[in-house]
Structures are given as C-alpha cells and as structure tokens.
Design brief:
This protein has nine helices and 16 strands. The protein has 330 residues and is α/β, with parallel strands linked by helices. It has two domains: 144 residues, 3-Layer(aba) Sandwich (Rossmann fold); 174 residues, Rossmann fold (3-Layer(aba) Sandwich), CATH 3.40.50. The strands form three sheets. Strands 3-2-1-4-5-7-6 form a seven-stranded mixed sheet, sandwiched between helices.
C-alpha cells in the first residue's frame, strides 16, 4: 500500500516534500494512508463519490479534476491500464515538480513502469507490500495518453475506467429487454453508468422523470452525452445514501458486486435496502444480478413479493414489488 512505500521514497529515497505549493494525489483508495504528506497542502482528486466523501470528511481538499498547477503529484494506479495512462498524462500536464506513481503489482504497476521507461528517466522503484512506487523528476509530455469521453463504434459515449466501456453489458441488455411498458412516473436508475438502461426507461409510457444515480463522475459525464432527454436528471451520488425529494415509483438496477477483485454481495444487498427505502408503498424494483450472488433473503426482507423472471445461465432477473414498511417503535 502507498502508506508503506511513500515514507521510504521521502526518507532517503531522493524525494522531498515541497515546502510550498499544492500537492495533488490522484485517485487514492479509501484506505490510502497519506500521512507522509502535509494535509494542508494536499488536493485529493477522486471522482468516485463514496471515496471522495471519505477524504472530504477527513479534512482533505477534494475535487474531481485538477484545478491549479502543482508542486508535486502522486498518481495511485487504477486497474484499467488505459485509465492509468490517462491519469499520468493528466498529472504530468499540471505538475511543475516530481510526479510519483504508486500501485500494487495486481494493478499493473510493472506494466506502467515499463511503459514510462520507454519515454523518460524513471527513478526508483521502491518495492514493498506487493507494490511499487517510482517517480519522474523532469517534465514529460504524455498528451498522447490523454483519454476522456469518446464516441464508440456502437454509437455511445464512454471513457477508460467506466463500466462496460467497450460494449453494452450483457446483464444490462437482459434487464432492458425485460422492462415493462408501464413503469410509473418517477423512476431511478441506480448505478446508471453511461446511461444504457436510462435510455431504455425513457422510451416507456408515462415516464416523467428518470434519475440517473451514479458514483463515477466520468461515467455520469458520459451519460449526459448519451441521454439528452430533458426528463433525465443526473446525480453524482452514492446510490446507497442518495435521497430523492419524493418517493419513487420504480427503481432499476444492475448493482455492482465488487470493490476490489473479490465479489462482495454486501454491495448489492445495500442497493436493495436503499431501493426499498426510497420506493413508494406500491413501488417496484427491477434488477439483474450474477446468478451466484445470494440476494434472495435480502429481497424477501424488504419486499412483499419477489418474482423470478428467469434470465440465463449467468444472470438472474428479479422483479420485487411493494417495499415493506419499517415497523414503528413504541
């Protein structure tokens, strides 16, 4: 982890914290230990809302993209290589001093190190805790690595790091085909991504508003390009804590099921629980999930009726109706 490697680089590794100027940390994980850097100088760039909120609550200055020039930058490598290269291009373009790159071997640190060595002199690495930290001291133009929202051959806008960036997700396509013609007036798409399901919802009868709730800021920016209907409302938010002004008639979702590499059914369960809280008494939930994920007990806990709509060998389709009202105390 970066907390194990950064102090080593700054303590005899040839690096020093700048005494003035801002220090930018790109895309740190929620548990990243940044204590080796002076908090009052640090700007955290984190476009994933739940992690953004963690650092903001901890007292860090936070944003979704660089806003000034920096005396030093630290890039925490994401798993997607194209996204990692784009972050490096962004960091080198806005930094006047050293650019540090940190990542686990499982996140492709070796591959990024190799790519950088073809372009510039790279210092380090510091090897510890199954990862690497290395850095650039000299200015470097990596503008050819820059990537943002772009129109795919399939006719939709996506970007590196966005879920299902290369093609329509198979599970979402199954769910889209299962949606009924009448879905109510107020609908939300939890984890809306680049807007595939929301676009389908807006073709249904009597829909007055569709709330696209998405934690990935770049995905939401893509959705704004893909779903231009004036009934679409965009929310950069964690679906597990987001609240609409009024109760909803329908919620549609293909919930995430992992934060790292291991499957975590707790995420889907939290999405189901949140949906039940936000639906009107006669509301309904339409969802798709990997068949092996154990959501049935959670659905039964929160909804009066659950209908198995089938799906295929990999995915299950579920229609849950009438959220159970919480019991009153006293």
């Amino acid at each position: 982890m970066i907390g194990a490697r950064l102090p080593l680089a700054l303590d005899g590794g040839g690096l020093a914290v700048p005494v003035s100027g801002r220090i930018c940390v790109f895309h740190p994980a929620s548990d990243a230990d940044l204590s080796a850097l002076p908090r009052e100088q640090v700007d955290v760039i984190q476009p994933f809302k739940p992690v953004h909120d963690v650092f903001e609550t901890a007292g860090y200055a936070c944003d979704v993209s660089p806003q000034v020039r920096y005396a030093m930058s630290v890039v925490c490598l994401p798993r997607a290589k194209a996204e990692a290269l784009a972050l490096l291009a962004q960091a080198t373009a806005c930094t006047d001093g050293p650019v540090l790159i940190d990542g686990q071997k499982t996140d492709g640190a070796d591959s990024i190190l190799k790519a950088l060595k073809k372009r510039a002199q790279v210092h380090g690495p510091v090897n510890k805790a199954h990862g690497k930290l290395f850095w650039l001291n000299d200015p470097l133009d990596l503008s050819d690595w820059i990537a943002g929202p772009e129109l795919t051959d399939g006719g939709f806008w996506t970007a590196p790091g966005v879920f299902s960036a290369d093609e329509v997700d198979v599970a979402s396509a199954l769910l889209a085909d299962a949606l009924p013609e009448k879905m109510g007036r107020k609908v939300a798409d939890f984890g809306a991504g680049w807007g595939f399901l929301s676009a389908h919802i807006l073709t249904k009868q009597n829909v007055e508003e569709v709330h696209l709730v998405e934690a990935n800021h770049m995905a939401l920016e893509c959705a704004k390009r893909n779903v231009t209907d004036p009934r679409a409302l965009y929310h950069w938010a964690d679906a597990m804590v987001w609240k609409p002004k009024t109760k909803l008639d329908t919620i549609v979702m293909n919930p995430p099921f992992h934060m790292g590499r291991a499957a975590d059914p707790a995420l889907g369960r939290a999405f189901i629980s949140a949906a039940a809280r936000l639906l009107a008494p006669s509301g309904q939930l339409w969802m798709v999930a990997n068949r092996h994920l154990p959501y049935e007990d959670t659905l039964a806990q929160h909804f009066v009726k659950t209908v198995d709509l089938g799906g295929d060998a990999r995915f299950k389709l579920v229609h849950a109706l009438r959220p159970k009202q919480p019991k009153r105390m006293g």
